[in-house]
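Work Package 3 (structural annotation) set out to generate three-dimensional models for the target panel prioritized at the project kickoff. During this period the team completed the workflow that converts sequence records into discrete structure tokens, so that structures can be stored uniformly alongside our sequence database. As a representative example, we reproduce one entry of 160 residues exactly as it appears in the project archive.
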Amino acid sequence: MTNVTMKVNGKSVSGEVEGRTLLVEFLREKLQLTGTHVGCDTSQCGACVVHVNGDAVKACTMLAGEAEGAEVKTIEGMANADGSLGVIQAAFQEHHGLQCGFCTPGMVMSAADLLDKNANPSETEIREYLEGNICRCTGYHNIVKAIQAAASEMNTVAAE
């Protein structure tokens, strides 16, 4: 057993883990942050995407010990300080970018990573960026629309 300490959604956390404990397991089981989903256990679906030190990472492919000292952001950390939906989350809701919701946390986290890197992505760039995220319900059209709407709103706020 090893003790790990990291900052998750702005709060310092620590816990004892086995060396083989995945980051997604630590988040869900030790910290009770169940918004990060486990879909495939093989890094194919993207439901487990979180940000580690500002980069999107599939939490099913990273050991909790590898996140020692890291800044981790989960879907729970995407809400506004008052608990209301963040810009990207609200855009997914408004533009029907979700159906069953299983892929949504990973999609939102991937979208946030994309918009951090490219404030005004084209439809093609969005679709290419989401290649590591699988949605079995929406057909992606409304997810793309939601990300475009979030980009537009974020750019408007930044210009003010």
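Residues 141-159 form the longest helix (19 residues).
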